[in-house]
User: Fold these one by one.
Assistant:
Number 1:
Amino acid sequence: MQSVLLSKAREYENEHIPKISPALLPRFHVTGEVGWINDPNGFSLYRGEYHLFFQYNPYSTHWDTMHWGHVKTRDFIRWERLPCALAPDESYDKDGCFSGSAIELRDGRHLLIYTGVRKTDDGDEYQTQCLAFGDGINYEKYENNPVISDELLPEGGSHVHFRDPKIWESDGKFCVVTGNLTCDGSGAVLLFESDDAVHWSRVSTVAASENRFGRMWECPDLFKLDGKDVLLVSPQEMRGDGMEFIFGNTTLCLIGELGDDGVLTRETEHTIDYGLDFYAPQTVPTPDGRRVIIAWMQYWNSVEIRPVETLPFFGQMTLPRELNVRDGRLIQKPVRELENYRKNRVSYTDISVDGKTTLPGIRGRSLDLTVAVRPDGTDLYKSFIVNVAEGEGYVTSIRYRPDKGTVLVNRSRSGWPENVMNHREFAVRDRQGEITIRFILDRYSMELFVNGGEQAASFAIFPPEEADGISFESKGKALINIEQYTLDI
Ligand code: FRU
C-alpha cells in the first residue's frame, strides 16, 4: 500500500520532472531533477542493474524531511529515473528517512536499510535502523521496524546520532556498519551482524575518532580491496589540517587490517577527495570484481547558496569511480564505461609552452581531457596553469607548482560568490616536474584525477555554458601532451 506521503511525492515528480529542460541538468551526473538531494543511498546491483537512491526533498531546493529518490543504470553513465522510493510516513521515521544502503536478497527481493528519525514531544530524538523490502520500484517498510535501535548501542553511544547503515553479506551473514557519536563527543563506526537481516547483534567498534578526525562520523562504508580493509567515513566538524583535510564536513579513508574481533588496525589515514565538493561516498562491488564509489558532489558549508537561482535542482553526485588500493592509498579512476561515450579525439604531443597559450580544438564543457606536463630541458618550470570553463569573466584554474609539490584550484570565478570557500590546495607526489591531470567536465562540475588517480578532486562549478575556453600558462618552459574527447551523453 502506497502511503499518502509517498503518493504525493510521486505525483509531484510526475507533474514537474517532464517539464524540466534537459539543458538545465548535468549531462551525465545524477541530480534529483527537482528539489534537493544529498547523500547517495542504496548503491547496489539488483537484477542486473545498478540502483542508486539518494537523500531527497522533492518539493524545494533546500534540505527538509528526507525521502529517498531513485535512479538506476546499466553502465554508471546513463541513468533512468524511477519514482520516489521512500517517504517519511511511519511513526519511527516521521522526521526523515535518512541515509542507508541496499542489497539483493537470495529470494529475489531488494532490501533497503535506512535510518528512521523520530523526534519526541519532549524534544528528544531517536535515530534507528529500519528495513524496507521491494522489487526495484516499490518498497514496503518492514512491519516490525526498527530492527536496530538504541538498546544495541555501546555504553555512552548517542541515540540522537546513530545513523547511516551500510549493509553487505559475508560468509552467509549480513553485516552492517553505522556511524555513532560516542561519549567523548566524537564519532565511531559500529559493526553489527545478523543471520536474517532482521535480528541483529553488535560485534564491535571498528574505529573511532577520539577527537582526532572531527566529531560525528557519518556514512561509513567498509570493504576489502586489494588485500586491505578500507573504512570510509565522513566526519563532521573537521578542524582542517594543512593541505590534507578541509574544514567542516569532509571525508576520511582509513586503510588497515580488520581483526577477527571486528576492530580495524589502522595503517594509513588520508582524505578521500581533495576537492571542495565531495561527501558521504558509498561503494558497490561489481560482478567483474571492481569496487565503484559515488559521492554527493557538494560541500555542506555552502548549501545555502544558489549559484544559479533558476535551476530546478540542488545537489549532484560525482561520476562513479573505480577504486584500488596502492601503497596504502586509495586510487580513483572514472569508471571505464565512460570511454564508450568519448567522441572527437583531439591530441597534441610535445607542445612547448612558455607564457599563455590556447590550442585549436581544445575547448568544451562536456569533456574528458588529459594534460600531461613535464619540464622542457633541464630547468624546472616555476608553475603551470590549466584554465578551464573560461570566457567573459569566468575561469576555473588549476595551478601546479613543482617546487612546492602542490596543486591549487581556484574556482572564485566559476559562478560561486566570493564568500564561499573557493580555493583548495593539496600536495601531490613529487615526480620532478611531471604531472598528469585528467579533467572530467560537465555542465556544473569539474573532477580532477591526478597522476593516474593517485588523487581525485571534485568541484561543483556554475559558469554559463558559453564559458568553454581552455588555456595553458607556464612560467618557465614546459612540454605538454594533450588528449581531449568530447563526451556525447
Ligand atoms: C550526511 C547526513 C547523514 C544523514 C543525512 C541526512 O550528509 O547528515 O548522516 O543520514 O545526511 O540527510
Note: The chain has a mean pLDDT of 97.
Number 2:
Amino acid sequence: MKDTYRHQGKRQQLVKTVKKKGIADEKVLAAIGKIPRHLFMDSSFEDHAYQDKAFPIAADQTISQPYTVAFQTELLEVKKGDKVLEIGTGSGYQTAVLCELGAKVYSIERQRELYKKTKSFLSKIGYRPKYLSFGDGYKGLPDYAPFDKIIVTAGAPEVPKDLLGQLKVGGRMVIPVGTDVQTMNLFIRKSPKEFDKKEFGAFRFVPLLEDKN
Ligand code: SAH
C-alpha cells in the first residue's frame, strides 16, 4: 500500500480540477489533496484513481466522483467535533474526508462485504471513524442520534423521514433525491418541526436500497 510521489503529483492535479469546477472550501480541498484515493480502489483501476470520476468497487457499488464528494462535503459545512452520520460507507473515501475535517463519523453500509472490507481498510490506513455500522441506512442510528450533520451518498427515491428526525436543530442534511438522476438537496433544521430546503444541481448515484429483509 504505497503512496508515491507520482500519486501525490496526480492528486494535486485532481485538487486543481475540483477547484476549477467550483469547490472553494480550503479544508475540503486539503482533504482531497491528502487522502490516497488510489488505495480505496481496486488495483486494476489504480491508474485512474486521480481522474475526477466515479469507479466500480466491490458488490456492484461505486466510489463517488471526487467533485461530488467535495460538493456534498462543502454543503455540509463540517466543523471540528461535529457528530456526522453518513449513509453508504462504500469504499470509505467520503468517511475519510469527514475524518480529515475533524468530524466524529458514524457510517452505515448495507452490503456486508463492503462493510467488513472498509472497516478493516480504514483502520489499516489510520482513519478512526467513531462507529461503522452494518445495516439499513433508511433507519439512521436512533441510538446515537441526534447528529449535527447527515450525509447520504446513494440516490434516495424519497427523503427518509427517520433521518430528518435524527438531525439536531440547526443541523444540516445533504441528500441526493431522485431515481434515475438525483437533485442534491440540503435540509436545515430550523426548529423541531421546521426544515428549510434548498436544491442544487443534478448528480448520478447508485440507488439507496431498502432493507433486504
Ligand atoms: N461514500 C461512498 C459511496 C459509495 S456508493 C464512497 O465514498 O465510496 C453508495 C453506498 O451506499 C454503496 O456502498 C451502497 O451499498 C450503500 N447503500 C445503498 N443503500 C443503502 C442503505 N439503505 N443503507 C446503507 N447503505 C446503503
Note: The longest strand covers residues 167-177.
